[in-house]
Amino acid sequence: MLTVAQSGASGCQSSALRTPDDPGKTEVRHIAVVSSRGASRLFHFVRYKRLHYRAIDRIRTGDDEALGTLRDVLAIGPHGTTGDFVILQYTSTSSLSVSIFSEAASLRRTLVMDLAPPNVIDLNWHIAGATRGQLWFCADGFVGYRNALGAFLTMSLSQAPTSLHISPLESAEEALISLANEVLLIDAPKAGKPLETVNLYSGQLASNPPVCCYLADRSIVVAHEDGGMIFPRDNRLAPCATLSIPRSAGRPHAICPTTNNGFAILTTTSKLLVFEPESKA
Question: Measured between alpha carbons, how far is 78 from 36 in angstroms, rounded to an integer?
Answer without folding.
Answer: 9
